What does this fold into?
Amino acid sequence: MSLSINAALTLAAQKLAAARITSPHLDADVLLSFVLKKSKEFLYSHSEQILKRAQYSKYKKLINQRARYFPVAYLTNHKEFFGLDFYVDKNVLIPRPETELLVERALRAMETIKNKNATIADIGTGSGCVAISIAKNINARVFAVDISSTALKIARKNARAICTDAAAAVGGVNMPRLSRKKIKFLHGNLLEPLKNKKLDIIIANLPYWYDNDMKNLLKSSWSKSIKYEPQIAIKGGKTGLSIYRKFFQQISQLKYRPKYILTEIDHRQTKSISAFIKKILPNSKIQVFQDLNKKDRVIVVTI
Ligand SMILES: C[S@@+](CC[C@H](N)C(=O)[O-])C[C@H]1O[C@@H](n2cnc3c(N)ncnc32)[C@H](O)[C@@H]1O
It folds into this structure.
């Protein structure tokens, strides 16, 4: 079948809308741009151009996968985060825009650390998006830990790409070039690989979803994509906080305590996690920051 760009987009958006995908036109555009390796503007300015058979067949395959809720970022293997282009696949959580707040607050906290050789740890690094964004913006030694060795492979791949390929940076023209040696990726359970390290800041975006939420979300069409993401990156147990509890317990047992701990949370967990932190670290100060939707998202603990 020979189809123009315009006709292919229309058919694809109809198929996605029928499958109750919430952004059918946007997804149809992104996936065709990806197949043709052209910008969205090109699609509009060449709408009558006829697609080659191989192009259309690849596009149809992607649209069919998307109609089954497979995430766009996994289909294109790209996700932009903090102005950088990250490789993603089913082994890592797709970086979320709200996690940029965690990076912003960590950079702010860093400004108050006088130590020239400051050391930061990113626990539950996944794609490496937090660790790499931080290393790209400040001069600090970064340790990145994950329990998933397949996720660590992706994080290392991203560090290599963002380190060596200037074109990988989507924005941030003035960003310093990242030295790959600035980030050390470690396999392990939470802080275990860093027990004896002196760390100035510990950052963690660990799984915090309630088990029940997962069940409900999988029923609604907008969130069905989540079933394709690694469950080890999402599920936080009955209260959502089982992994964070272990994390703070480990912090209380560290030989050297950091000055700051930053974590991403669900807005319903502010009270319970604050109470737990106060119990474990009684002299700490807790600040809560809201995301763009005015929901509590980041907790900054100062020790
Ligand atoms: C919510 S994802 C965050 C990924 C990435 N930092 C981001 O912000 O997109 C949580 C990550 O924590 C990792 N993880 C889960 N349990 C862990 C544990 N006990 N120790 C270390 N990492 C863990 C998962 O493999 C996953 O990569």
Remarks:
- Residues 123 and 200 are 14 Å apart (CA to CA).
- The beta strands are 79-81, 84-86, 119-123, 141-146, 183-187, 201-204, 260-264, 285-290, 296-302.
- The longest helix spans residues 149-164.
